[in-house]
Amino acid sequence: MSVLHVFSGNLKALMATRDDLSSNYKVSKASGIAPTTVRRAMNGEVAAQIDSVEEIAKSFRLRACDILDPDLIRRLEAKEPLRMGEHRLPVMPEADWKALSPRTRAFVEELCTQVLSGALQDADVAWLHDSMQRAAKPAPVQGGRIAPEHKEELEALSRQAEELHAQPQQRHSTAKR
Predict the structure, then answer these.
(1) Exposure check for the chain: N or C terminus, fewer CB within 10 A?
(2) Is the Cβ–Cβ distance between 38 and 28 less than 8 Å?
(3) Tens of pLDDT along 52-97?
(4) Do residues 151 and 88 touch, judged by C-beta distance below 8 A?
(5) Do the Cβ atoms of 71 and 90 come closer than 8 Å?
(6) Element (H, E) at 176
(7) Which helix H or strand E contains 141, and what residues bound it?
(8) Alpha carbons 177 and 168: distance in angstroms, whole number
């Protein structure tokens, strides 16, 4: 079952159990997401952006990872705790997210959408993880400039990121509709 169908099924089931969030309009008002987006996500027509998934989940007092859990409804019916384990820190602090360029934020949003829709292959995700780990290490700076021995590696990572960004778009543009 794809993430798209899990989210759709969980959203329908949650809406059926809550009078205050029983319609697209009510979920839209509570989450701040457009009613059309809520309807299309509920019908499994499109993969919602990660921000939309988070806001919809918050309106049900859940986290995005909870609403994307295939066993969510069973766990709710069994009254199992949803927030098991240690609290996980956000992947990126809010200040760092705001410091990113609009182009980089759009790239990250696109990657999150691709992951949620299941369009990325395991190899793509593994490559992305490895690249992010390497990019997360601060490059030594000498006199306000990146050290020459690290400049080439950063440029190669940048080219690979651009290639990865272009691949999902190529997949979609060649797909039959």
Answers:
(1) C
(2) yes
(3) 888 998 888 888 878 888 888 887 777 665 554 334 445 566 777 7
(4) no
(5) no
(6) none
(7) strand 141-142
(8) 16
pLDDT in tens, 58-69: 888 888 878 888
User: Under a CB-based contact definition with an 8 Å cutoff, are residues 44 and 80 in contact?
Assistant: no
Closest by Cα among 95, 124, 96, 94 to 111: 124
* Partners of 142 in beta bridges: 145
Between CA 175 and CA 166 the distance in angstroms is 15
Asked if 135 contacts 159 with a C-beta cutoff of 8 angstroms, the reply is no
Give CA–CA dist 137/60, Å, rounded.
37
Nearest to 13 by CA among 33, 31, 27: 27
